[in-house]
Amino acid sequence: MHENLTDLHLLHELEPVVEKYLNRHLSMCKDWNPHDYIPWKEGKNYYALGGQDWDPEQSQLSEVATVAMVQNLLTEDNLPSYHREIAMNLGMDGAWGQWVNRWTAEENRHGIALRDYLVVTRACDPVQLEQLRLEQVTRGFSPGQNQQGDLFAESLFDSVIYVTFQELATRVSHRNTGKACNEEIADQLLARVSADENLHMIFYRDVSEAGFEIAPDQAMHSLHRVLRNFKMPGYTVPEFRRKAVIIAVGGVYDPRIHLDDVVMPVLKKWRIFEREDFTGEAARMRDDLGKLVEELEEASQKFEESKQRRLEREARKAEKLTAKRVLASTP
Protein backbone atom coordinates (compact mmCIF):
# COMPACT_ATOMS: atom_id res chain seq x y z
CA MET A 1 0.00 0.00 0.00
CA HIS A 2 1.41 3.40 -0.99
CA GLU A 3 0.65 6.92 0.11
CA ASN A 4 1.35 10.37 -1.33
CA LEU A 5 2.15 9.01 -4.77
CA THR A 6 2.69 11.49 -7.56
CA ASP A 7 0.20 11.52 -10.42
CA LEU A 8 2.86 9.93 -12.61
CA HIS A 9 3.23 7.02 -10.21
CA LEU A 10 -0.54 6.70 -9.85
CA LEU A 11 -0.96 6.60 -13.62
CA HIS A 12 1.57 3.78 -13.78
CA GLU A 13 0.09 1.89 -10.82
CA LEU A 14 -3.42 2.06 -12.25
CA GLU A 15 -2.52 1.34 -15.88
CA PRO A 16 -3.33 -2.41 -15.66
CA VAL A 17 -6.66 -1.60 -13.98
CA VAL A 18 -7.52 0.92 -16.70
CA GLU A 19 -6.69 -1.59 -19.43
CA LYS A 20 -8.85 -4.21 -17.73
CA TYR A 21 -11.84 -1.90 -17.38
CA LEU A 22 -11.38 -0.44 -20.87
CA ASN A 23 -11.62 -3.95 -22.32
CA ARG A 24 -14.66 -4.62 -20.14
CA HIS A 25 -16.27 -1.41 -21.37
CA LEU A 26 -15.68 -2.29 -25.02
CA SER A 27 -17.26 -5.71 -24.44
CA MET A 28 -20.33 -4.20 -22.74
CA CYS A 29 -21.09 -1.06 -24.73
CA LYS A 30 -23.52 -1.14 -27.64
CA ASP A 31 -22.76 1.13 -30.57
CA TRP A 32 -25.71 3.17 -31.79
CA ASN A 33 -26.35 5.85 -34.37
CA PRO A 34 -27.79 9.26 -33.48
CA HIS A 35 -29.73 9.45 -36.76
CA ASP A 36 -31.77 6.38 -35.77
CA TYR A 37 -33.41 8.34 -32.94
CA ILE A 38 -34.45 11.45 -34.86
CA PRO A 39 -38.00 11.77 -36.33
CA TRP A 40 -36.74 13.17 -39.63
CA LYS A 41 -40.19 13.11 -41.24
CA GLU A 42 -41.22 15.88 -38.85
CA GLY A 43 -38.45 18.12 -40.13
CA LYS A 44 -38.99 21.05 -42.49
CA ASN A 45 -36.91 23.92 -43.79
CA TYR A 46 -36.36 27.10 -41.84
CA TYR A 47 -36.74 30.59 -43.33
CA ALA A 48 -33.22 30.74 -44.82
CA LEU A 49 -34.22 27.92 -47.21
CA GLY A 50 -37.70 29.14 -47.95
CA GLY A 51 -39.43 27.60 -44.97
CA GLN A 52 -40.75 28.92 -41.68
CA ASP A 53 -38.63 29.98 -38.73
CA TRP A 54 -39.34 28.69 -35.23
CA ASP A 55 -42.44 29.73 -33.36
CA PRO A 56 -43.08 28.95 -29.66
CA GLU A 57 -46.38 27.31 -30.57
CA GLN A 58 -44.46 24.59 -32.44
CA SER A 59 -42.92 23.09 -29.29
CA GLN A 60 -44.70 19.97 -28.09
CA LEU A 61 -42.65 19.50 -24.92
CA SER A 62 -43.50 20.87 -21.48
CA GLU A 63 -41.42 23.68 -19.97
CA VAL A 64 -39.68 21.25 -17.61
CA ALA A 65 -38.80 18.82 -20.41
CA THR A 66 -37.58 21.59 -22.72
CA VAL A 67 -35.45 23.31 -20.08
CA ALA A 68 -33.98 19.99 -18.93
CA MET A 69 -33.18 18.74 -22.43
CA VAL A 70 -31.60 22.04 -23.46
CA GLN A 71 -29.61 22.12 -20.22
CA ASN A 72 -28.42 18.56 -20.86
CA LEU A 73 -27.43 19.46 -24.42
CA LEU A 74 -25.51 22.58 -23.40
CA THR A 75 -23.70 20.48 -20.81
CA GLU A 76 -22.73 17.98 -23.53
CA ASP A 77 -21.65 20.87 -25.79
CA ASN A 78 -18.74 21.65 -23.48
CA LEU A 79 -17.06 18.37 -24.48
CA PRO A 80 -13.89 20.16 -25.75
CA SER A 81 -13.29 21.46 -22.21
CA TYR A 82 -13.98 18.07 -20.63
CA HIS A 83 -11.63 16.33 -23.06
CA ARG A 84 -8.89 18.84 -22.33
CA GLU A 85 -9.28 18.52 -18.56
CA ILE A 86 -9.34 14.72 -18.61
CA ALA A 87 -6.51 14.41 -21.14
CA MET A 88 -4.33 16.77 -19.09
CA ASN A 89 -4.91 14.78 -15.89
CA LEU A 90 -5.09 11.22 -17.22
CA GLY A 91 -2.63 11.52 -20.08
CA MET A 92 -2.81 10.29 -23.66
CA ASP A 93 -0.47 7.31 -23.46
CA GLY A 94 -1.34 3.62 -23.33
CA ALA A 95 -4.68 2.43 -21.96
CA TRP A 96 -5.36 5.82 -20.36
CA GLY A 97 -5.13 7.56 -23.73
CA GLN A 98 -7.25 4.91 -25.43
CA TRP A 99 -9.94 5.40 -22.81
CA VAL A 100 -9.88 9.20 -23.03
CA ASN A 101 -10.37 9.11 -26.80
CA ARG A 102 -13.04 6.41 -26.69
CA TRP A 103 -14.95 8.25 -23.96
CA THR A 104 -14.78 11.49 -25.96
CA ALA A 105 -16.07 9.79 -29.11
CA GLU A 106 -19.02 8.28 -27.27
CA GLU A 107 -19.86 11.53 -25.48
CA ASN A 108 -19.76 13.46 -28.76
CA ARG A 109 -22.72 11.61 -30.22
CA HIS A 110 -24.88 12.64 -27.27
CA GLY A 111 -24.70 16.29 -28.30
CA ILE A 112 -25.26 15.38 -31.95
CA ALA A 113 -28.41 13.40 -31.18
CA LEU A 114 -29.92 15.87 -28.70
CA ARG A 115 -29.40 18.86 -30.99
CA ASP A 116 -30.83 17.06 -34.03
CA TYR A 117 -33.91 16.06 -32.02
CA LEU A 118 -34.54 19.57 -30.68
CA VAL A 119 -34.03 21.27 -34.05
CA VAL A 120 -36.00 18.77 -36.15
CA THR A 121 -38.97 18.68 -33.77
CA ARG A 122 -38.77 22.47 -33.23
CA ALA A 123 -38.87 21.94 -29.48
CA CYS A 124 -36.95 25.16 -28.83
CA ASP A 125 -35.61 28.26 -30.57
CA PRO A 126 -32.64 27.02 -32.68
CA VAL A 127 -31.15 30.51 -32.97
CA GLN A 128 -31.07 30.95 -29.20
CA LEU A 129 -29.78 27.40 -28.84
CA GLU A 130 -26.81 28.20 -31.09
CA GLN A 131 -26.12 31.44 -29.23
CA LEU A 132 -26.13 29.57 -25.94
CA ARG A 133 -23.79 26.91 -27.36
CA LEU A 134 -21.28 29.54 -28.43
CA GLU A 135 -21.41 31.23 -25.03
CA GLN A 136 -21.19 27.95 -23.13
CA VAL A 137 -18.20 26.59 -25.06
CA THR A 138 -16.46 29.98 -24.87
CA ARG A 139 -16.83 29.97 -21.08
CA GLY A 140 -15.33 26.48 -20.89
CA PHE A 141 -15.34 24.40 -17.73
CA SER A 142 -13.01 23.15 -15.04
CA PRO A 143 -14.12 20.68 -12.35
CA GLY A 144 -11.40 22.10 -10.10
CA GLN A 145 -13.50 24.96 -8.77
CA ASN A 146 -15.30 25.38 -5.51
CA GLN A 147 -18.64 27.08 -4.97
CA GLN A 148 -16.95 30.49 -4.89
CA GLY A 149 -15.27 29.84 -8.24
CA ASP A 150 -11.81 29.54 -6.66
CA LEU A 151 -9.54 26.86 -8.06
CA PHE A 152 -8.60 24.03 -5.73
CA ALA A 153 -5.64 21.73 -6.41
CA GLU A 154 -6.32 19.08 -9.02
CA SER A 155 -4.85 15.60 -9.16
CA LEU A 156 -5.51 12.31 -10.88
CA PHE A 157 -7.79 11.26 -8.04
CA ASP A 158 -9.65 14.59 -8.22
CA SER A 159 -10.42 13.90 -11.87
CA VAL A 160 -11.58 10.28 -11.74
CA ILE A 161 -13.56 10.75 -8.52
CA TYR A 162 -15.27 13.91 -9.77
CA VAL A 163 -16.22 12.30 -13.08
CA THR A 164 -17.61 9.26 -11.24
CA PHE A 165 -20.23 11.41 -9.54
CA GLN A 166 -20.74 13.65 -12.56
CA GLU A 167 -21.39 10.73 -14.92
CA LEU A 168 -23.88 9.19 -12.52
CA ALA A 169 -25.64 12.51 -12.06
CA THR A 170 -25.79 12.96 -15.84
CA ARG A 171 -27.18 9.45 -16.29
CA VAL A 172 -29.95 10.18 -13.80
CA SER A 173 -30.69 13.57 -15.34
CA HIS A 174 -30.93 12.22 -18.89
CA ARG A 175 -33.17 9.34 -17.82
CA ASN A 176 -35.54 11.55 -15.86
CA THR A 177 -35.61 14.10 -18.68
CA GLY A 178 -36.69 11.36 -21.07
CA LYS A 179 -39.59 10.48 -18.79
CA ALA A 180 -40.53 14.16 -18.41
CA CYS A 181 -40.74 14.55 -22.20
CA ASN A 182 -43.76 12.24 -22.29
CA GLU A 183 -42.83 11.48 -25.90
CA GLU A 184 -41.77 8.03 -27.04
CA ILE A 185 -38.86 8.95 -29.32
CA ALA A 186 -37.33 11.41 -26.85
CA ASP A 187 -37.65 8.82 -24.11
CA GLN A 188 -35.91 6.18 -26.23
CA LEU A 189 -33.13 8.58 -27.22
CA LEU A 190 -32.42 9.71 -23.67
CA ALA A 191 -32.55 6.12 -22.41
CA ARG A 192 -29.84 5.31 -24.95
CA VAL A 193 -27.73 8.30 -23.86
CA SER A 194 -28.29 7.37 -20.21
CA ALA A 195 -27.03 3.83 -20.86
CA ASP A 196 -23.78 5.28 -22.23
CA GLU A 197 -23.37 7.50 -19.20
CA ASN A 198 -23.94 4.54 -16.90
CA LEU A 199 -21.08 2.57 -18.46
CA HIS A 200 -18.82 5.62 -18.25
CA MET A 201 -19.71 5.98 -14.56
CA ILE A 202 -18.93 2.32 -13.91
CA PHE A 203 -15.48 2.70 -15.50
CA TYR A 204 -14.54 5.75 -13.42
CA ARG A 205 -16.12 4.34 -10.27
CA ASP A 206 -14.15 1.10 -10.46
CA VAL A 207 -10.87 2.82 -11.36
CA SER A 208 -11.41 5.10 -8.36
CA GLU A 209 -12.11 2.06 -6.17
CA ALA A 210 -8.76 0.59 -7.21
CA GLY A 211 -7.19 3.93 -6.29
CA PHE A 212 -8.60 3.65 -2.77
CA GLU A 213 -6.81 0.32 -2.43
CA ILE A 214 -3.49 1.76 -3.62
CA ALA A 215 -3.51 5.04 -1.68
CA PRO A 216 -6.57 5.31 0.60
CA ASP A 217 -5.60 8.51 2.42
CA GLN A 218 -4.70 10.27 -0.82
CA ALA A 219 -7.95 9.16 -2.45
CA MET A 220 -9.94 10.31 0.59
CA HIS A 221 -8.44 13.80 0.35
CA SER A 222 -9.70 14.00 -3.23
CA LEU A 223 -13.12 12.54 -2.41
CA HIS A 224 -13.61 15.07 0.37
CA ARG A 225 -12.49 17.92 -1.89
CA VAL A 226 -14.79 16.82 -4.72
CA LEU A 227 -17.95 16.32 -2.65
CA ARG A 228 -17.49 19.44 -0.54
CA ASN A 229 -17.14 21.54 -3.72
CA PHE A 230 -19.30 19.54 -6.14
CA LYS A 231 -20.98 21.34 -9.00
CA MET A 232 -22.50 19.89 -12.15
CA PRO A 233 -20.69 20.91 -15.36
CA GLY A 234 -23.83 22.72 -16.52
CA TYR A 235 -23.37 25.42 -13.87
CA THR A 236 -21.68 27.62 -16.50
CA VAL A 237 -24.84 27.72 -18.64
CA PRO A 238 -26.46 31.19 -18.63
CA GLU A 239 -29.31 31.50 -16.09
CA PHE A 240 -28.26 28.19 -14.52
CA ARG A 241 -29.90 28.87 -11.14
CA ARG A 242 -33.32 29.64 -12.63
CA LYS A 243 -33.16 26.58 -14.86
CA ALA A 244 -31.97 24.39 -11.99
CA VAL A 245 -35.05 25.38 -9.98
CA ILE A 246 -37.37 24.46 -12.87
CA ILE A 247 -35.57 21.13 -13.30
CA ALA A 248 -35.67 20.42 -9.56
CA VAL A 249 -39.35 21.29 -9.07
CA GLY A 250 -40.12 19.20 -12.15
CA GLY A 251 -38.52 16.15 -10.51
CA VAL A 252 -35.71 15.74 -13.04
CA TYR A 253 -32.82 16.47 -10.68
CA ASP A 254 -33.21 17.79 -7.15
CA PRO A 255 -31.36 17.60 -3.80
CA ARG A 256 -33.08 14.34 -2.85
CA ILE A 257 -32.13 12.71 -6.15
CA HIS A 258 -28.56 13.99 -5.79
CA LEU A 259 -28.22 12.44 -2.34
CA ASP A 260 -30.13 9.17 -2.78
CA ASP A 261 -29.32 8.32 -6.41
CA VAL A 262 -25.85 9.81 -6.86
CA VAL A 263 -23.86 10.45 -3.68
CA MET A 264 -24.92 7.52 -1.48
CA PRO A 265 -24.70 4.68 -4.05
CA VAL A 266 -21.08 5.57 -4.81
CA LEU A 267 -20.08 6.01 -1.16
CA LYS A 268 -21.64 2.63 -0.36
CA LYS A 269 -19.89 0.95 -3.29
CA TRP A 270 -16.54 2.27 -2.05
CA ARG A 271 -17.45 1.31 1.58
CA ILE A 272 -16.32 4.76 2.69
CA PHE A 273 -17.93 4.54 6.13
CA GLU A 274 -16.86 0.93 6.69
CA ARG A 275 -13.17 1.11 5.78
CA GLU A 276 -10.56 1.20 8.53
CA ASP A 277 -7.53 2.14 6.42
CA PHE A 278 -7.90 5.93 6.60
CA THR A 279 -5.45 7.64 8.94
CA GLY A 280 -4.82 11.11 10.34
CA GLU A 281 -6.38 13.93 8.34
CA ALA A 282 -7.98 11.44 5.93
CA ALA A 283 -9.87 9.81 8.81
CA ARG A 284 -11.10 13.24 9.92
CA MET A 285 -12.24 13.96 6.36
CA ARG A 286 -14.18 10.68 6.26
CA ASP A 287 -15.98 11.74 9.43
CA ASP A 288 -16.70 15.13 7.86
CA LEU A 289 -18.29 13.37 4.89
CA GLY A 290 -20.69 11.83 7.38
CA LYS A 291 -21.62 15.38 8.38
CA LEU A 292 -21.96 16.32 4.72
CA VAL A 293 -24.45 13.50 4.20
CA GLU A 294 -26.46 14.85 7.15
CA GLU A 295 -26.34 18.35 5.62
CA LEU A 296 -27.53 17.00 2.27
CA GLU A 297 -30.35 15.15 4.01
CA GLU A 298 -31.42 18.35 5.75
CA ALA A 299 -31.23 20.28 2.47
CA SER A 300 -33.33 17.60 0.78
CA GLN A 301 -36.05 17.84 3.41
CA LYS A 302 -36.11 21.63 3.21
CA PHE A 303 -36.36 21.48 -0.57
CA GLU A 304 -39.22 18.98 -0.46
CA GLU A 305 -41.13 21.20 1.96
CA SER A 306 -40.47 24.27 -0.19
CA LYS A 307 -41.48 22.38 -3.33
CA GLN A 308 -44.74 21.27 -1.74
CA ARG A 309 -45.60 24.85 -0.74
CA ARG A 310 -44.80 26.04 -4.26
CA LEU A 311 -46.98 23.37 -5.87
CA GLU A 312 -49.84 24.22 -3.53
CA ARG A 313 -49.56 27.93 -4.44
CA GLU A 314 -49.58 27.09 -8.14
CA ALA A 315 -52.61 24.83 -7.65
CA ARG A 316 -54.51 27.62 -5.90
CA LYS A 317 -53.62 30.05 -8.69
CA ALA A 318 -54.83 27.56 -11.29
CA GLU A 319 -58.11 27.10 -9.42
CA LYS A 320 -58.68 30.86 -9.23
CA LEU A 321 -57.87 31.26 -12.92
CA THR A 322 -60.31 28.48 -13.82
CA ALA A 323 -63.01 30.05 -11.66
CA LYS A 324 -62.52 33.44 -13.36
CA ARG A 325 -62.79 31.84 -16.78
CA VAL A 326 -65.98 30.06 -15.78
CA LEU A 327 -67.48 33.31 -14.49
CA ALA A 328 -66.40 35.17 -17.62
CA SER A 329 -68.07 32.58 -19.84
CA THR A 330 -71.31 32.54 -17.85
CA PRO A 331 -74.10 34.57 -19.51
TrEMBL record:
GO CC annotations, alphabetized: cytosol
UniProt remark on cofactor binding: Binds 2 iron ions per subunit.
Binding residues for Fe cation 2: 107, 167, 197, 200
Biological processes annotated in GO: fatty acid biosynthetic process
Required co-factors: Fe(2+); Fe cation
Coiled-coil zones: none
Residue numbers binding Fe cation 1: 76, 107, 110, 197
Superkingdom, natural source: Bacteria
Alphabetical keyword list: Fatty acid biosynthesis, Fatty acid metabolism, Iron, Lipid biosynthesis, Lipid metabolism, Metal-binding, Oxidoreductase
SUPFAM superfamilies hit by this protein: Ferritin-like
UniProt KW Nucleotide-binding keyword: no
Record's compositionally biased regions (Basic and acidic residues): 301-322
Record-level Gene Ontology MF annotations: metal ion binding; stearoyl-[ACP] desaturase activity
Keyword Ribonucleoprotein: no
Official protein name in the record: Acyl-ACP desaturase
